[in-house]
Amino acid sequence: MATRRPVLALLALPALLLAGCDDAMLPPPVDRAAIAAATRDIAAAPMPRPTLRSPEQDAAMLSRVAARTIRAAQPFCQAELGSGCDFQVGIMPAATPNAFAHDANGVTVTTGLLRLVSNDDELAGVVAHEIAHHVAGHLAEGTRRAQVAATIGAAVGRAAQDVVGIDLGLARLGAETGAKAASLTFSKAQEREADYLGAFIAARAGYDLERAGGLWAKMTKLSGDQTTSWFDTHPAGPERLAAWRRAAEEIARDPRAMPRRGGWFA
Known about the structure:
The protein is built from ten helices and three strands. By secondary structure, it is mainly α. The protein has a single domain, classed as 3-Layer(aba) Sandwich (Collagenase (Catalytic Domain)). It has a three-stranded mixed beta sheet with strand order 1-3-2. Strand 2 and strand 3 (106-110) form a beta hairpin.
């Protein structure tokens, strides 16, 4: 086992090195004071309670929010993809509050999440976030990054195995570790980017970003996640709420502007 520790550290490096060159969107940075303020606001918020609506009311709410948000997303689709987007937004019966982007243009919201949202603004923040994953090409990018990282990890594993001189399965371990490292690294980066672009889409649709951000506080109250670690797939609630507020401030200064862009080291 002593041999594997430096090898695992080495295997994680190639996936991390895959970052840095993309012309990614640049969410505004958040400092400790902004995160501390968000943490206090989340702590002061009441525990969320299920909103009592009928299934028909939930479906109507999602339909009107989706239609309005999809229309607002079209300029961003043109800017990022060179064409309009035809998103399909649906409901999945599931008690866990969740929403996810899938396939070429799908967005699904669980009934558990619909129970959690109190108004159209909160739901718009969620729908815009998932649409943003599609607009930014995150699904295809994540697959490509994991494949490249797995290939690099396997090569590093084989090299380490040659040094050890014993078949310890390091090539397979390298591929698995590289892919996992890439997945975790880009998941957080993509979630931050989707929040940032999603704020622009929701604002362009005319929704109140301050009210929309209330859902991040609710989700944090339920999960208890207060700090972001390397092994998380999403930024923790206080960081996420603070970044959402910074994005709202940026948008308020120029409501017709597009998201800022640049490489990670810009």
